[in-house]
Every structure is written in C-alpha cells, then in structure tokens.
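Hi R.,

As promised on Friday, here is the backbone we talked about, encoded as structure tokens. Could you run it through your design pipeline when you get a chance and send me back a sequence?
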C-alpha cells in the first residue's frame, strides 16, 4: 500500500483540531451577540473559527449543543443574583437588585432570550429542553422564596412566574426592538443614558407594583 508523499493520515478528530473548544465557543458567542440566533449556523461559526464544521460537532454534538453551551456561558457571566435563601434579605432591595440584574444581563447578552425562545425551548433534545427550563425556573423559584419569607409584611404577594415573565418581556423587547426605540427618540439621543433611564423606570414600576401600601 502506498501513501501520497507529504500527506499524513488523519486520526481521531476531524480536520481543524488546532482550534480548541474554547475558541469555537467564543466565536459562537460573538456571533450570537451580533445577529439573530437563527442566522448562527454551524457553517458560519466554522468559518469564523477557521475550522471544519465536523470539529464543532465533535466538541458539541450538534448545533443545539453549541447554542446551549453559548447560553450556559452567557448565564454564568450574568451579574450575581441576590439570594433569597435561609438568611433574611431586605425584600425591597432584593426586588430592585433582581430588576437591575435582568436589565443589565439582557443588555449585555442582547439576543440570549431570543436564543432560548427561538432555538432551544422547542429543541428536539429532551436534555436541551430541560436545561433551558432550569435556567428560567431558578429566577421564578428565587422570587417565590422571597414572597414566602416576607409573608406579606413589606410586599404584596404576586405570582412569581408572572413577575419573571414581565421582566424578561420588558427588557427583551427593549433590546431586540432597538430600531423601533431609535425611531421614537430625537436624533442624537444618548442611547446608553436612555437605557439607564428605562431601567430606572422599570425598577420604579415594579417596586410600586409589589410594595405593600
């Protein structure tokens, strides 16, 4: 048997093994930040990372696996959530902290909610669907523990699920509908300042809604 001079037989991993898993993940994260998740294909990530698409499948199993890894990394980088556990917390401060975290996380990750809704919520993989659900349930359970601990002393009891959904909806629309927002304000408006103002508005809106009168 002969081999072509200058060519080595490939073993194990597919072509492009010089690029590590972390490099591929970072390129995918950058693309998700820059464009709607539906446009982030394995081929596009492969071109950005300079690898063969087969290497991405080797590392992540599928496009769903890659996108789930992106969400995991983005969520891990979110501002720390105040804990409503066994130790007492100031309920009003906890709610404000949670609202501001939701605002800043959504602004910093931009398309993460679209990614979870459009790409992962109806994923074919049961494991992917379960993980996606866990990410949102943590926030709902945290609000639930807060209301249980407060026992109506400083906060009206509201449905923790609805509170979480309201925050996600408010901030996700503000970020994903930036062209609409820009058309509603005068040219030259400082959009960073506008974002901070919207965050303050939602904090005031939510606190006035849940604070006991």
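Update: got your reply. Pasting your designed sequence below so it's all in one thread:
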């Amino acid at each position: 048997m002969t081999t072509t001079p200058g060519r080595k037989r490939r073993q194990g991993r597919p072509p492009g093994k010089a690029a590590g898993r972390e490099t591929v993940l970072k390129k995918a994260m950058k693309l998700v930040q820059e464009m709607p998740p539906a446009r982030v294909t394995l081929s596009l990530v492969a071109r950005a990372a300079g690898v063969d698409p087969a290497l991405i499948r080797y590392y992540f199993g599928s496009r769903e696996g890659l996108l789930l890894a992106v969400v995991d990394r983005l969520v891990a980088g979110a501002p720390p959530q105040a804990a409503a556990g066994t130790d007492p917390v100031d309920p009003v401060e906890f709610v404000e902290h949670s609202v501001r975290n939701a605002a800043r996380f959504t602004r910093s990750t931009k398309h993460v909610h679209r990614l979870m809704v459009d790409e992962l919520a109806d994923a074919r993989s049961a494991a992917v669907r379960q993980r996606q659900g866990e990410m949102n349930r943590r926030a709902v359970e945290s609000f639930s523990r807060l209301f249980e601990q407060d026992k109506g002393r400083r906060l009206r009891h509201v449905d923790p699920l609805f509170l979480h959904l309201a925050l996600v909806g408010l901030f996700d629309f503000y970020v994903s509908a930036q062209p609409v927002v820009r058309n509603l304000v005068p040219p030259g408006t400082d959009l960073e300042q506008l974002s901070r103002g919207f965050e303050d508005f939602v904090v005031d809106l939510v606190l006035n809604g849940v604070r006991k009168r």
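One thing I noticed while checking it: The chain has two domains: 21-74, 83-210.

Thanks again,
M.
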